[in-house]
Each structure stands twice: as C-alpha cells, then as structure tokens.
Amino acid sequence: MNGRNDRKRKNSLTLDLIRKDFKKNYFAYLLIIPVLAWYIIFCYGPMWGITIAFKNYKPLLGFAASKWVGLKYFEEFFTGPYFFRTIKNTLMLNVWGLAFGFTSPILLALLLNEVRGKVFKKTVQTITYMPHFISLVVIAGMIHIFTQSGGIITQVVDFITGTEHSSLLGYSKMFRPIYTFSGIWQNVGWDSIIYLSAMSSIDPGLYEAAEIDGAGRLRKMWHITLPQIRPTIIILFIFAVGGLMGSSHEKIILLYNSLTYDTADVIASYVYRRGLQEASYSFATAVGLVSAVINFILLWATNKIAKKYSEISIW
Amino acid sequence: MKVRHKKLLSCLLVVIFLFTMLSGCSSKNTAVNKNTSNNSGAEATKEAEPTATAEANPLAAGIAGNTAPTDEEKAMVNDTLEDSYLGDVFDTKIPNDYSAYPMDATLDVWMPSNSILASVCDDLNNQKTFAQVEKLTGIKINFIVPPLGEETTNFNLMIASGELPDIIVDAGRYTGGIAAGVADGAYMKLNDIIEKDMPNYNAWRNSDEERRVTSVLDDGTIGAVYGLAPYNEWCWFGMLIKQEALDKTGLAVPETIDEWHNFLLACKKAGYDQPLNYGSTYGQIFTGILNGAYNVWDWMYVDKDGKAAWGPAAAGAKDYLTMMQQWNKEGLFNKDWATADFNQRMAEAASPDCAVMMDSPDTMWGYWKQDNNIDFVGALNPVLNKGDKPQQTYKNFKSTGTIAAITTQCDNVEAATAFLDFAFTKKGWEIYNYGSYGDVHLINDKGLPYFPEDGLMYNDPDGQPLSNLIWKYRIHSFANIRDEHNSNPLITAKGSYSGKIREYWTSNTDDSMTMPPVSFTADESSREGELGTILSTLRNEYFAKIVMGQLPVSAYDEFLQKAKTQGLDEFVQLWQTALDRYNAR
C-alpha cells in the first residue's frame, strides 16, 4: 500500500522534474531533435535490411519478396579456405592500430600541452592535422612513391637493414607497419584535438597545488593531466575495441597486392573481390553481420571491464 | 524573453537551412522530366523532313572524294537520311531501312558516363553526336546519367526502386546478367520485336555467325540489343620495344623465349637497368604474353580438344615459372613490378632504365612518341621454338561490349526500338562513329568516312588531347556498329602506328584457345563467383611469390594440390557446361 503510493509519488516526481527541465531547457531538447532524427532514419530505419543476409536478395524483387536461403552465405563465409586468414589479418591490423594508432594522439596531446609558445603550438597542430584532409587515394599514391625502390622510406629501411629492397609494399612483413604508421601520420593531429580540449578544461589550481608540493613537469603530467583526461581515454578506448573486427577495404585495396595477401587480405577486401564478380549483397551483408556481432560482444566486454575497474563506462 | 525567441528563431533557421542543403545536393539526377512533346502541331515544323531513299538526292553524287563540301552538301548529309554516297566497305553490307523515321517521341535513357566523356561533355544531353541522331530520327532522348564512380550503386537503386526508364545502356550490370534481367521481369524479351520492328539490327545480327551467337542467350532468348562490330577488333596488348634499344644492342626483334632472354641481357649491358617493364597490379602478370609460349594461360581457355580448362593448371606452368624466377633474379624486370601502379609504370617507361613495355600501343603512342618522342616497334608474343605460331587469348568476337536493354516499363516500345535500330543503319554507322559531316569528317572516294587533317578532330578549339576527343565529336562505344579501326582517331592520326602494330599482332597470332563469352545461370554464377575468388587469390599469391623468389618453383605442386581441394574440378565443370550451351546456340 504504502510502497505503491511511494512509487506513484516518485513517478510523478520524476515526470515533474522532466517537465520542469523541459520548460527550463527546451532549447537543448530542440537541438537534439536533428541528431535523433538522423539516427532513427539512417541507423535504425535500414536495420531490417539485415534480413537479406538470410535471403538470395534480388534488388528488383525487394527485401520482402526475395527467397529465403537460411544460413547459406554464413556457411560460405565460415567454410571458405581464407576464413581464418582474413579474420586474423583484420584483428592483427586493428591490434596494431590500438597499440600505436590509439596511443600516439594521446602522446602528441601531452607534448603539445607542455608547449608554452602559442605560435609554435598552433603551427605544429596545423601541420599534424593537415594529412587528415587529403583524399585517401592521394595518400595511397604518396605511400607508393615513398616506399618504391629508392623512395625516401625505402632508403631509410635499406640503411638500417643494410640490404637493398624493392618496393616495400611487396613484402608481407612490411604491410602492417606501413599501414599502421601511415594511418598515424594521417590522423594523429586530428585525433589529438579531443584530448587537447579535455586538457584545456583542467583546473589550473591543481597544477599550482602540485607545484607547491614540489612536482616537476613529468610528475604533473603523470599525476594530474593523465588522470584528468582518463575518462576521455577510456571511453574512446571502448569505442576502439568495438571496432576491432571492422576495417574499411579502401585503403587496403589501394596498398595491397598478391605478394602481401597473407598479411593484408582482410575480411572487407576479400568480400570486395568476391563482389567484383557479382554484386553479392547477401554475402556481404552476412559477413557484415558476423563482424557486427563480434564487435558488439567485444564492446560489451570492454565496457564491463572498464566499469568494474574504473567506474567509467558508456552505459 | 525576446532574446530567447530570437535565438530560437535563428537556431531553427539554421536547422532548416542544413536540411535543405543536405536534401538538395543530389536531386539533380533523380528528377526525370517526362516532357511529353506536344502532338498538337504534328505538321507544324517540318523543317528538314528526311526524304525516303527511293530516289537519290542529286547532291549525293558529289560527296565521295569531296574535300570542300558546300553548305548545301553539308546540310544534305547532316540533316537528311540520304546515304547513297556511303560505300559498302565491309564484307557485310550495312542495312539501310529508314522507314521508321521520322518519329515523334521522347525516351528516357539511363546511360553511364566515364571520365573521358565527362571531361569533354558535362551533360550527355548536350553531346553533339546524340543531338544529331535525335534530329535525324525525330526521337528526343532524355539521358539519365549516374554520378561518375557511383554507377553500380545508382543502377541497383534504380532497379530496386522499380522505377525504370525506357532504355538502359550497359544493361549487363544487372546482377546475374541479361538472362537474370529478363527472368526477373526487368528487361523485355525482344525476339519477336526485333523480327518485326528492328529490320536493320535483325539483318546485321544475322549476317554473321559470330554476331548472332554472341548476342543471344543460351536458351535462344534475346534480352537486349548488343553493340556489334563489322570485324574482330585488333588485340591491343603486347610487347613494345624502344627502337633505340634495338639500335644500341644491334639485335633483331626477338621471337623465341631464348632470343628474348639474350636481348634483355644485352639491353641490361647497354645501360637499361630494368629492361622489361612488367606490371601486375592491373593484370599484366597473366596476359599470356610470356606464359602463352608455354601454353599456360591466365584463366579459363579452350584446350586442343575443345574442352574448357584452367590456364594456371596447364602442364607447362612449372617451366614458365622457372623461367620467370630466373629473369627476375637477373634483374630483367622493373624492380617494383608487383606493386607499381599505372602512373609509376608510365614514369618508368619514359625513363632510360626501360627498354621494353608490356602494354597497349595506343597508350604508349601517347606516352612514348607524343610526350617523349621515343619511337617503338611491336613484337609478337614470344614462342618456345623457332617457327611456332605465336598465340594469345584476346578475341572480341565482333562485339563492342556495350549492351542496351528495353525495360518492361517502356511505354513507347516502338520509339525505343526505332532509336536503337538507327545505330545499325548505314547513316547510324556514319554519324555515331565519325560525327558530323564537313567539320569533323569527310567521305573518301571509296565512300568511307575519314577525319581530315585540318578538321575539328585534329584541331580542337579547346585544345583537348586526342585521347579525349574520341567522346567529343563521336560516340566511342555504344550499342551500335562500332568501327574502331577506321574511326578511332588515335589509330588514324597522322604518324600513329599503333593501329599497324595491333593489326600485325592480330593477323600473326593464333587466338583459337580464347574462351568465348559464355553465360551462367543465376545459381551457377554465384557458385562460379565464390570459387573464382578463391582460385584467383590462390593463383595470384603463389605465382607472384614464386616469380619473386619468395617461394621455390616446387611450391607449384602445393598450389595445384590446394586448387584441387578447393574446388577446381567443380569450377572447370561449371565452365564446361556453359561452353557446351554456348556451342549449341
């Protein structure tokens, strides 16, 4: 009896709160409408198209009228001779990406944060995020030129190893480093912006207090800056792990060749080659669905671990 | 309060503005204006009523061999259907039944562009040649052009939407091909329609066995109108040697593999550091130029018994790979052959390191001769033993590769057939291939059109390169009678010898092992795609690594074993079945 009344009161209380909040901040609610609409229309709307993974999809017949084929395409994917290799390569490229690509923007942000000279700081920032705006095809062309026999990077590698190489893109050992570090070159400046903005909101009082306690630069970095941007790092890390099974085929296709298949051929590029011969939407959807499910499990697990050890999580 | 409202208002405006921007950026192509032409004044404008060919226009006699036509003569050729000045220059007479024209209709035609066409003409609806065809037939064409690079997506969206235009050019894009398009009810079955309403196409198609066989489906259905050439187009890919390399080494053009080996070694001695430019990123690793000597082909071919066979599994493969590995070790190839893209290869070609290119003489005429004044000669594909006939697997079976289908939603089939049929008339052959008369082409005394040296084709006012003009003053590829050898300005230009090289290659090589354009059923096609991807991945990887020396030649056995376990026999069987059906057409 009592409990129910209590709950009622609570409910009306929260409703009241929401109403009040809406009245007070209706502007913020208005602002979120386009975002919500975008997600509903472009992300949730097309979701039922996933059914074509279980159908022999023919565009003219549409989603509904295409014939069901059950798990045919999943079987095709799991039993193919290159299944394990493409999975492994996808994961490995992303692990490299996590190890180097994820950490370097944090490092860059930490270093930039220590720079006093305004002009120098701005210049470095501009230069580092410039490659982000160059088209991928052009970037790949540049990589081709830098790594051809006698290219700048090839000469460096030749000098270090003491042997002469032809184009570095022809060695399967070289593919992951080339892919990862060119990715860093492309995105490090852009990705560091979010950390810099997180650092700019740190209370200067904290630094002053630390200085009074006699902390040097490195100490301040370690004990103040890093803990203060920890939530940002963790959340971005959870998202990054959620993308472990994903990879875009564009850059790979521009850089790989038959000599580097064994490290470079990922799920996306294999499906792309398969699609060249016929538009196999159903097959591609089935593969995409498998990747999405694995990604979701990874995301969920990482989120859980993060919650347990740091109380920071997406949900 | 007031300030609040102002803020709200401006914010809303921004949101609205954003939405209009987002939605407005791609509506250009989707709006198909069905402008039904006014039939009210059918006899209002009969300015240039084409005359029937019953009696020849007296002006026509003075066209052949005329190098300075009068305006009257130009108008006669460009604006009427008179064609008696055109000679019968091919083995087969081109039909000329113009009874369907003029016709008053409007058609929606979906047609993909390409980078060259887009660079000379921003809107297909303003393309000179098509405009002239519209004038001659009376049929107005409303072109729907997908954005460059998004043709596939655009095509499939169009099919999925169920809103089809009257005609689709490049109809083979349909998943599963023309057969699937007809079976799914997207394309019309044209057998009776062609018999009845397309006298020119019907006659042209049936005038030659190859033209007939390649333009029909296995079960006898005709699902589209296929571009058909008067002859087999020359092959366009092979060995090209810099003349200076022959001079420096003092050797004759090599014929056998051993002679080639000696020649390349001599080139290396003469200072060509990477004598043979051999790429793989776009397929030259398997063009059959070198492997053909060992009877090893890139992919599917027809063996001596007329059976389908998979090239990489042929008996000579190990010998071929041994040779390649050795040449690679001796540094006879360009160092980066496995990774070089097109631009890199062209840069290498012009450098003093390169003596021989494997490429197209049309391309190299531009890069070598025009840009760098490097003379070159074409060499036949190498053979193993002196006196053998060189072989290659390029044959185009008299088809242009462009296919146009009439959709099931076409509301004026008569106009659609008349428009497509015009491309197979004599006049259509002249206009599509050679553009307009007087400014772009003239007619020689045999009745064959040509581009005069002082004409627009070689003196473009915008200074566009010749390689682009193939789409500016004429139509380079369409469902028509494509006359590549006489009307491609790159071949006919003064000083160009790429046509000669191509002709020499074609007439001196054996192409009997070429796999004809067979077709698969929907189920076969999906299985073929699956196995084909597996096998091509396997082949590319093993062959490239063996040539590079990253694997020993003995790894070939392992490769063959893998190919067998991964369904090679089933794959070959699929092709055999399709080949049997093709032979029975």
Give your account of this protein's structure.
The complex is a heterodimer of chains A (315) and B (585). Chain A is mostly helical and 315 residues long. Chain A has helices at 2-44, 62-65, 72-79, 83-101, 103-114, 118-129, 136-147, 152-161, 172-200, 204-212, 217-241, 249-255, 261-264, 267-277, 281-310, and strands at residues 55-56, 67-68. In chain A, strands 1-2 form a two-stranded antiparallel sheet. In chain A, helix 4 (83-101) packs across helix 9 and helix 12 (249-255) packs across helix 14. Chain A is flat, with a radius of gyration of 25 Å. The mean pLDDT of chain A is 88. Chain B is α/β, with parallel strands linked by helices and 585 residues long. Chain B folds into two domains: 85-232 and 399-486, Periplasmic binding protein-like II (D-Maltodextrin-Binding Protein, domain 2, 3-Layer(aba) Sandwich); 238-394 and 511-583, D-Maltodextrin-Binding Protein, domain 2 (3-Layer(aba) Sandwich). Chain B is built from 23 helices and 13 strands. In chain B, the strands form four sheets. In chain B, strands 2-1-3-11-4 form a five-stranded mixed sheet. Chain B has a four-stranded mixed sheet with strand order 6-9-5-10. In chain B, strand 7 and strand 8 (308-310) form a beta hairpin. In chain B, helix 14 (361-372) runs antiparallel to helix 20. The N and C termini of chain B lie far apart (82 Å). Classes of the chains: A mainly alpha (315), B alpha/beta (585). Chain A binds chain B through residues 27, 30-31, 33-34, 58-62, 76, 80-82, 141, 144-145, 147-149, 166-167, 169-170, 257-259, 261-262, 265, 270, 273-274, 277-280, and chain B through 4, 7-8, 11-12, 15, 18-19, 152, 156, 159-160, 162, 175-176, 180, 184-186, 280-281, 285, 335-336, 338-341, 343-344, 525-526, 528-530, 532-534, 536-538, 540-541, 543-545, 548, 550, 562, 566.
